[in-house]
Design brief:
By secondary structure, chain A is α/β, with parallel strands linked by helices. Chain A is built from 7 helices and 8 strands, in the order βαββαβαβαβαβαβα. In chain A, the strands form 2 sheets. In chain A, strands 5-4-6-7-8 form a 5-stranded parallel beta sheet, sandwiched between helices. In chain A, helix 2 runs parallel beside helix 7. The two termini of chain B are about 25 Å apart. Chain B has a domain of about 325 residues: D-Lysine 5,6-aminomutase alpha subunit (TIM Barrel). The chains are: A alpha/beta, B alpha/beta.
Chain lengths: ~260, ~525
């Protein structure tokens, strides 16, 4: 967390700041609620909060009372923070993106059988939207789901599957990869469930023999794979093609004939 | 709901004979299920009967006394059939044998193993029947009184000022946090408050007890939580000069018990779908249909409006391709509801605004679907559900989409409008999300609330054609279901793409075919719609 020591605009290639309508203007918008009745003091408090967040000047453009005890604000203003993209850490895709045809060919060539993927929402999570988007033939974002891939055998266990059930089915199906979706994040349920899941797989498989473990959901941090004991974490907006490519890369050597 | 004033009708020029045909197919498909349901009972139906007889509370570990008593009776009668005779004969036989002075003591003794149950015969059986009937009738009389009380309060405070009723959700997990949020939502204009249940409650084979302060993505449905929230909304109704309705969920493995508790605590609406538990929770189909029928009978008696769950089909399947499954399910839900004694005004049949906004003409198609539901079920309130599937985290686009959803609701005369949140799929709604969402609803209703008077889709135009096509496809589907059998259709993945065979799924262990001496005073009174 280092403060910029020189004027960021002097080296515009190195750092970025928000763009409103002019390069380097740093303009952002922000909305929030304060638990106080609407008044001049409330508006002043909103402005001060924005100042403390690094917005200066901060313009309170909208203040609306919501009942007797709350006020909603919209603030526009300039931030004095800059970001150096060269030191930002993210999980970049480190595998080639394959078409379904290429996935099928790679699996056929290297496994000489179909690759089995078992998927589920574990714990009490009933939101199958994520796992269905990846697995159902219907797919997501214009890409067909894994069921569409001829060389992938998909077993979708659906919602509210317990960890022991998942391990049992994974064993019974001789799963090559296990896909778990977690949407509910209250009290960090998604993290707790994922850790429980990876621990259960570690216990019931000999080292190095367990299936590839992949977890996904809109609120996951993609850098947490090691900490959660899984092979990959996928965040918001992941498409079936990315998941299929990753599995192929890790399990079927993904040497793609061009 | 009082008879509605001039509703837009006949805008699609549907052939009444076609609609009638669709209804008769739904009846044909549903009738064997009703016959099957009448021949079975479940642990949840029996426990609901005990609850109506006044048995509440739980042991130190939180297991309700109705579960302890039911399980002991079932185990004691194992050699002569167990569940198949119902819980009433052995329980009231034990009371008549002075094993305990009341149901709670009997349940405690049963849990401690200090009482043994038997299946009474002859005169003993007749006496047990009469005694159980007296006690269960008292519970049903309370349900009747609660209904009259609702009518009285609506008269005193006034009803919701307009349609659609504005339906808002609270879901903090903590009933004491829910209460101020619900009261604030009512002040901001909500006519109906729904307390979302904790994720996973549908798969609990017991109803938790007492006021609860922890839940995942929702608050547990318990009798005490029902009572606390209803009392708080009674205060709000008084303050606001209009009766604010309360909604919860009669679904999952404890559907009949929750329906009974809703009747006893004067809840006003219950989510209650005939197939949701089967398809989306993998609950055994027989269990679901048996529980469903009992819970609907209770709702009918309690004057509760049910909300069905067709919107869920569109969250898993494509909203255009699967449009006809919604109509089909609405027709089936209507048949099952009416068979159980519910009237048109109690049928909040569900549907949703879930077409991909990137599809050309998506809004015209939404209007066609919504109008079709309106005209096939002219006297049902209809539950109109907002977009969820195509809400992406782009809250600005989401707010626009919700505006179009509200407009479609206004144009097609929907009775219950679940307010869409622009932060759907991002966070559980913040106080400001709700405020912005209500502002959206108010703007649309004030700007275009009566636009339906001028809205007449062109004969032969896109909306007419689409509505006819969906109705036609739903008739084809019903034809197939009648040929194949509804249970078989559910087994092979006709609805929501999920395959649910009748001999699998959760809760199957709690189902039994009734014996020749089976007796249940609640079903006897409910079946005959007896006035007590």
């Amino acid at each position: 967390m280092s403060e910029p020591t020189s004027d960021p605009l002097k080296d515009p290639m190195k750092v970025v700041m928000p763009y409103g309508d002019t390069t380097g203007d740093g303009m952002v918008q922000l909305s929030f609620t304060l638990p106080m009745p609407h008044s001049k003091i409330a508006e002043g408090s909103a402005q001060q909060l924005a100042n403390k967040m690094g917005m200066d000047p901060a313009l309170v453009v909208h203040a609306k009372p919501m009942g007797p005890d709350f006020t909603f604000f919209v603030v526009y203003g300039r931030v004095n923070h800059v970001v150096d993209p060269s030191v930002v850490q993210v999980v970049e895709r480190d595998y080639p993106l394959l078409t379904p045809k290429e996935v099928n060919a790679a699996v056929k060539r290297s496994l000489r059988r179909r690759l089995t993927v078992v998927g589920a929402c574990i714990g009490t999570d009933a939101h199958t939207v994520g796992i269905d988007a990846i697995l159902n033939i219907k797919g997501f974002a214009g890409e067909k789901g894994l069921e569409y891939y001829r060389e992938l055998k998909v077993v979708n266990l659906g919602a509210q599957v317990s960890v022991p059930q998942l391990v049992e089915r994974a064993r019974a199906e001789k799963a090559d990869a296990v896909l778990v979706s977690q949407v509910v994040t209250q009290r960090d349920a998604h993290l707790l469930n994922t850790r429980e899941m990876s621990a259960a797989f570690r216990e019931s498989y000999p080292a190095g023999r367990r299936p590839l473990l992949i977890v996904g959901g809109p609120r996951f941090d993609e850098t947490m794979a090691d900490e959660l004991g899984v092979d990959r974490v996928f965040g918001r907006g992941t498409t079936p093609g990315e998941v299929a490519s990753f599995i192929t890369h890790r399990l079927a050597g993904a040497k793609v004939a061009s | 709901m009082s008879p509605r004033p001039s509703r837009p009708t006949g805008k699609l020029d549907l052939d009444p004979a076609t609609v009638k045909h669709a209804r008769s197919l739904a009846r044909k498909a549903g009738r064997p299920i009703v016959t099957m349901a009448k021949k079975h009972t479940t642990v949840a139906v029996e426990r609901a009967t005990l609850r109506l007889a006044g048995l509440g509370g739980a042991d130190d570990e939180g297991t309700p006394w109705v579960n302890r008593l039911m399980d002991t009776v079932r185990a004691d009668l194992h050699d002569v059939g167990g569940l198949e005779h119902g819980v009433s004969l052995p329980v009231w036989d034990a009371l008549l044998r002075h094993e305990a002075e009341d149901l709670t003591t009997l349940a405690q003794k049963a849990a401690a193993g200090s009482v043994t149950f038997r299946l009474p015969e002859g005169k003993d059986a007749a006496r047990a029947r009469a005694a159980s009937r007296r006690q269960v009738a008292r519970g049903l009389k309370t349900v009747d009184r609660r209904r009259a009380e609702r009518d009285r309060l609506i008269k005193r405070h006034g009803d919701a000022p307009r349609q659609p009723w504005i339906y808002l959700i609270v879901a903090t997990g903590d009933i004491y946090e829910d209460i101020p949020q619900a009261q604030q939502a009512a002040r901001e204009g909500a006519d109906v408050i729904a307390v979302i249940r904790s994720t996973g409650q549908s798969l609990l084979d017991f109803v938790p007890e007492g006021a609860t302060r922890e839940g995942y993505a929702g608050t547990y449905a318990t009798q005490e939580n029902f009572r606390l929230m209803r009392a708080a909304l009674d205060e709000s109704s008084k303050e606001l000069g209009r009766y604010v309705r309360l909604t919860n969920y009669a679904s999952g493995l404890c559907m009949p018990e929750i329906a009974a508790l809703a009747g006893l605590e004067r809840l006003d609406m219950m989510l209650n779908d005939s197939m949701y538990g089967i398809l989306f929770r993998d609950i055994n189909p027989i269990r679901t249909f048996v529980d469903q029928r009992f819970s609907r009978q209770v709702h009918a008696r309690a004057g509760i409006i049910i909300n069905t769950g067709e919107d869920n089909y569109l969250t898993t399947a494509d909203a255009i391709e699967a449009a006809h499954t919604v109509t089909t399910s609405q027709l089936l839900n209507e048949y099952f509801a009416k068979e159980a004694g519910l009237e048109d005004w109690q049928l909040g049949l569900g549907h949703a605004f879930e077409i991909d906004p990137a599809v050309p003409d998506s809004f015209r198609l939404e209007l066609a679907h919504a109008l079709l539901a309106r005209e096939v079920f002219p006297n049902a309130p209809l539950k109109w559900m907002p977009p969820t599937r195509h809400m992406t985290g782009d809250v600005f686009k989401g707010n626009l989409l919700d505006g179009f959803f509200n407009l479609a609701g206004a144009l097609t005369g929907q009775g219950i409008l679940l307010v869409g949140m622009m932060t759907e799929a991002v966070v559980t709604p913040w106080i400001s999300d709700r405020d912005i969402a209500l502002q959206n609803v108010r703007y649309v209703m004030e700007a275009a609330g009566r636009l339906h008077e001028d809205f007449h889709p062109a004969p032969g135009g896109v909306i007419h054609q689409r509505a006819r096509q969906v109705l036609g496809e739903s008739i084809e589907l019903l034809d197939r279901i009648v040929d194949e059998g509804l249970l078989e259709a559910i087994a092979d993945g006709t609805f929501g793409l999920m395959k649910r065979p009748a001999d699998a799924g959760r809760g199957l262990d709690g189902v039994a075919a009734k014996s020749s001496v089976y007796y249940n005073p609640a079903t006897e009174i409910l079946d005959a719609q007896e006035v007590l």
